[in-house]
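Bench log, entry 3. Co-assembly request; chain sequences pasted below exactly as received.
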Amino acid sequence: MMAVAELTDVTKAYGDKVVVDSVNLQIREGEILALLGPNGSGKSTILKMLAFIENPTSGEVKFQGKAVNFNNTEKERLQSTLVFQKTIVFGTSVYNNIAYGLKLRKVSKETREREVKKALELVKLEGFEKRNARKLSGGEQQRVAIARALVLNTKLLLLDEPTANLDPKNAGIIEEVIETVNRENKTTIVMATHNMFQAKKLPHRIALMDEGKITEIGEPAEVFGKLSKNLARFAAVANTFTGTGKATSSGTSKVDVGNGVQIEITQQKQGITAIFVNPQDIILSKTAVKSSARNVFKGKITEITDVDSLVKLKVDVGKTFTVQITKQSFNEMELCLNAEVFITFKASSVQVL
Amino acid sequence: MADILGDTLEALQLIFSGDPGVFEIVSRSLFFSGTAIILAILWGTPIAMLIAMKEFRGKTILKTFFNTLIGLPTVVLGLILFLIFSRGGPAGLLGLLYTPGAIIIGQAILVTPILVSIGVSAIESVDPEIMNLAQTLGASESQAQVAVLKEAINGIILSDLASFNRAIGELGVVLMVGGNIEGGGNQTVVMTTAIARYVQISEFGRAIALGILLVLILFTINLIVVVARKGYYIVELAKPPFARFKRRRENKQ
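Structure output for the full assembly:
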């Protein structure tokens, strides 16, 4: 299979801080490749180099078989586009935002109008042409950003944490778009994510990144298989834990992930086990809830972040869990930092990696 | 002594009867200052872009230099320009002293610091990622710079406006290099200098008429811009500090 882009021994350093450390990576035509790793592992920098807006300190980047001269990347930039993690739109209408790249490519007005309409349909923002992009919600703005990139129909589409700060509805729409574009337009996609769940579902291949290096690369099943053996360093990914599993008499297992936290899972697991709990599957309450759920922990809220219609909380129960609740619940429950709360989730919501 | 009521009535009469003497001075003022602003925009905008978008040695000093010049007394600038344009001065051969050309160039130089300083801060307040964004969408470096400039357009318009207001309401430079000449081929009387002269010769009615018209012009131009931007203009101006405040609040949470 032909490689759309290829990094050979690519290193990027800012001063003496190395953020990408002699990376070798081939991006195959038509694939979805996910770069999975904690914040600061070098994912964004690799994407910026593939978008040709950041030049490597050393090493070679090839694009469509040719070595890229980073002194002049104008031609390559027409064929590769990046959607930033931080959503950013031009302070003008949605139409002007999406048509921007087409105008640069001197596409005729009729085609422009047609293509913008198509892109807006794809991201489910039909009829939004005349709206002021800055006045849309965060999720809608991110969808505009995706449409603005899609409309260019580039060889390579780069997405930096495309759903990191979105509620499930917006995230779902974007994941659907990624799949559709890849399937129908055969667009090659490289996306950075630290969302385990997304990494398991969407990509054909995963590259695990840690401290500027690619530690594993392969198909999701294969990588996750290896992951469970060599995982301690991956704890930085939200709600991913490793520990020792022990079968219980009732046919389930308990995984001791340290600090007195034992998580019950439905599978029988002995020895080192890596698990992941989707933040949306965790119920948050102020008092212990009597329920069938097997996992109940008491802890304190250590961090609160606003995400559109959602609130992301970090709860320390000995180990830190990320929990997602709606803004309305957040207000109704009158939660604040250091408040004592309970988190509850079913053994069957725990995914063994 | 001025008879305030009587003179004001006379002023209103001059305005409403469309007195040719008064309106000739008004249109000359508009023409001089308008031309001066266009000149200043032509050289001021690239300077502002250069300072805001490029990293170079002495950038802070250059910014401070333009900021300081805003406060330069116009009479002092007038004096400097007078010396430059006067017969023995470096630009004496051009014979510009006491001509409309001298006024236009004088005003353009006078407003350049305002244009540059406000322009620089407007461009610098644009999200630095806009440049990268434009480039990822296929823009060349100069196209990306234009994209940044478009984002700063409210601030740029404000700087043009402030410059025009300063130019048309300015007295010192015009007086020094224009000479306040009425009649003949080189008429250099503008609204401000005319007001000063009419007061000296006790023609208070005409002075008041020009004063009213000067304020009206400033008001109208500001209004047009506000309306043209559909009211977004003021909202946008208020935005950066608010946005910062909001962000800080979010971080605290």
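Chain A has a mean pLDDT of 88. The domain at 278-346 of chain A is CATH 2.40.50.100 (OB fold (Dihydrolipoamide Acetyltransferase, E2P)).
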